[in-house]
Amino acid sequence: MRSTSFCLLALAAALVASPALAQDKGTLNPEPLPPLANPADPNLPAKQVFGRALTPVEARARSIGFYSRGCLAGA
């Protein structure tokens, strides 16, 4: 009985550790997104604005806030 529960636990761990199959693999030659009609629109989601950035910001990397509630700028 004990070996059966160990086998089931090992099988469950193997299934959880498997890679996600629904992830987009991407491409080595991505096409740039078209420009936004009104980038200053307050109703525009941030992912639409920041998704068009082709290069990182030219700034020194620094942490902002406390280690458990902070963020990383310039990375």
Please explain how this structure is put together.
With 75 residues, the chain is an alpha+beta fold. The protein has helices spanning 2-16, 46-50, and strands spanning 62-66, 69-73. Strands 1-2 form a two-stranded antiparallel ribbon. The radius of gyration is 22 Å and the shape is elongated. 0% of the residues are buried.
Structural class determined from secondary elements: alpha+beta
What is the typical, i.e. mean, pLDDT? 76
Helical content band: 25-40%
Low-confidence stretches: none
Query: Please, how many helices?
Result: 2
Strand order of the largest sheet: 1-2
Q: Overall 3D geometry?
A: elongated
User: Got a strand count?
Assistant: 2
Main sheet: strands, sense, barrel? 2 strands, antiparallel
Distance N terminus to C terminus? 52 Å
Strand content: 5-15%
Task: Name a few traits of the molecule.
75 residues; alpha+beta; two-stranded antiparallel sheet; 2 strands; 27% helix; elongated
Describe the secondary structure blueprint for this structure.
Blueprint lengths: L1 H15 L29 H5 L11 E5 L2 E5 L2
Antiparallel strand pairs: 1-2
Could you write a compact summary of the structure shown?
The chain contains two helices and two strands, in the order H-H-E-E. It is α+β, with helices and mostly antiparallel strands and 75 residues long. A two-stranded antiparallel sheet has the order 1-2.
